[in-house]
Amino acid sequence: xxxxxxxxxxxxxxxxxxxxxxxxxxxxxxxxxxxxxxxxxxxxxxxxxxxxxxxxxxxxxxxxxxxxxxxxxxxxxxxxxxxxxxxxxxxxxxxxxxxxxxxxxxxxxxxxxxxxxxxxxxxxxxxxxxxxxxxxxxxxxxxxxxxxxxxxxxxxxxxxxxxxxxxxxxxxxxxxxxxxxxxxxxxxxxxxxxxxxxxxxxxxxxxxxxxxxxxxxxxxxxxxxxxxxxxxxxxxxxxxxxxxxxxxxxxxxxxxxxxxxxxxxxxxxxxxxxxxxxxxxxxxxxxxxxxxxxxxxxxxxxxxxxxxxxxxxxxxxxxxxxxxxxxxxxxxxxxxxxxxxxxxxxxxxxxxxxxxxxxxxx
Length: 362
Hints:
Number of helices: 1
Radius of gyration: 18 Å
Largest sheet: 4 strands, antiparallel
C-alpha cells in the first residue's frame, strides 16, 4: 500500500480473473524443497507476462493462474521446442512479473501476492536454468518488483511499493543503492528502461516518466504525459536519442531522451492501439503489443521509428492478447496471455520483415 492506495499489477489482476473462471494450469508441481524442479518438455502457458532472449533460447515468465503459482519456461528459438519448465518453491518463483536477460543469465522479478508489498528477485543461469541468487532480504530494498532493466553491470528495479527504484550489481545481485523518486508522485512504478547514462521509470498512477541520472542517482526531470489516450502508461523502451512509452488506454508517446520534450503522441484510430502493454524497437521499426482491453483479441502494431507512421497491423488468431514482445534480429517473439478470449496463453514467433507467422510455442 502506498499513500493509502493498494497497488496491484495487471498480471495479478489477470491471475485473480483466471481464478474466477476456474481455469487451472496443470504444470509441473515442485516438491517445495528443490531450488529447480526436474525439467519437462510439455508447456501449457497460463499468463505469460514477460519474455527475454539469451543466445539461441527464449525465456518466458508465466504469472500462473489461481491454481498455479507460475513458472519460467525455456524454449529453443531455433526449433520452438520446450527445453524446460522451472518451478521453484513458492517463496521463490511465485507469480513472476518481469524477466530480463543479463549477459548469459536471466533475472526474474517475483511479486509474492496481491495483498502484500513483498516479493523478490531471482537470477538463473542461462545455460541450464540453475539457481544463482535469490534477493529478498529487507536490506536489499525490494518491494513488489514489477519491472526490470539491465544496462551493463547494473540491474535496475521498478518497485510497485515504496516509491523508489533499486539499483543492483547485475553480476551478483548486491545492492548499489535505493533511489527515492516519490517526489510529487504516488508510487506505482510499473515500467523501466535504461541506456547507460539515464534510467527511465514509468509511473502508472499519474501517467508520468521520471528520468534519473544513472551515475549519480539524482532525478533529472519528471515528464508528464497529459493525453487521455496515455492513461495507465506502462511499457517503455529507449532507442538511441528517443524514448517510447505506451499508454494502456491506447496510444504511444515518443520523447526526446536529451531534452525530455515530447516529440509526438501517436494515437490515430488507424494504428489500432488497444491496451498497448509492451514495446520494443528493432532497426527502423517500433513493435507494440496490444493486449486487447476493448476488442478482446489483441493485435500487434508496427510503426516507423523515424516518424511514427504506421507500417502494418498484425492481427492473427494466434496473437491472443499479446502482453510482451522481444526481438532477436529477423525474428519477433510475442507472449500472448489469452485472457481476453478465455484461452490458454502461448508464444508466437513472427517474421520481422513482414509480420508473417513462423510458429506457435505452447
